Amino acid sequence: MTEIPKLLQWAREIQALAQTGLHFAKDEFQKDRCNRLLEIAADMISSDSDADFMQLAKIFKSQTGYATPRIDVRGAVFRDGNLLFVRERLDGGWTLPGGWADVGDLPSRAAEREVWEEAGFRVKATKVIGIYDANRLGALEIFHAFKIVFLCEIIDGVARPSKETSEVKFFSREDLPRILSNQRTNRRHIDDAFAALADKQRPAVFD
Known about the structure:
By secondary structure, the protein is an alpha+beta fold. The protein has 2 domains: about 5-60; about 70-205, Nucleoside Triphosphate Pyrophosphohydrolase (Alpha-Beta Complex), CATH 3.90.79.10. The protein has helices at about 5-25, 30-45, 55-60, 105-120, 185-200, and strands at about 70-80, 80-90, 95, 100, 120-135, 145-155, 165-170, 205. Strands 1, 2, 3, 4, 5, 6, 7 and 8 form an 8-stranded mixed β-sheet that branches. Helix 1 (about 5-25) runs antiparallel to helix 2 (about 30-45) and helix 2 packs across helix 3 (about 55-60).
């Protein structure tokens, strides 16, 4: 698992505490203090990265309600023992199809939808492979996330790229893609997917 820099961990925690504080604030003084903490969190991240302070502060202040991790869902889809990957247009890396779950989504339905939208296959989620801590790096480094990977069976469809993906391809375990979109899929997720395929009674793994 990628080690998250301590400064980023502190900034995330300050942002979450300030966002939750705003949610429960009873007067303007409390709101002012929480907004100042949001600015400090943005300043901490921008001082240690290429991120723009004003943009970060705006993003932080746009978050409302009690702060919780985001949910990233992924579909592990096999055909003839080979695992489905899509190539992300954003970074050129390969990943299991998936993305952020929307409010109101069932987790399994969100994963099924993402496979359809990104790869062109209609699938049925059959079991949870794992639930992972998913501290994201790069453009989404400011938010904490959990990742749920589902084992899925193909119903129908054909490989079809999307506006987010440039290629769709099945890979064998012996010939996995060399460049992964590591923020989205890493070797642990892949190894757990093949293990779940080999042993349908294997319990879900979790952090």
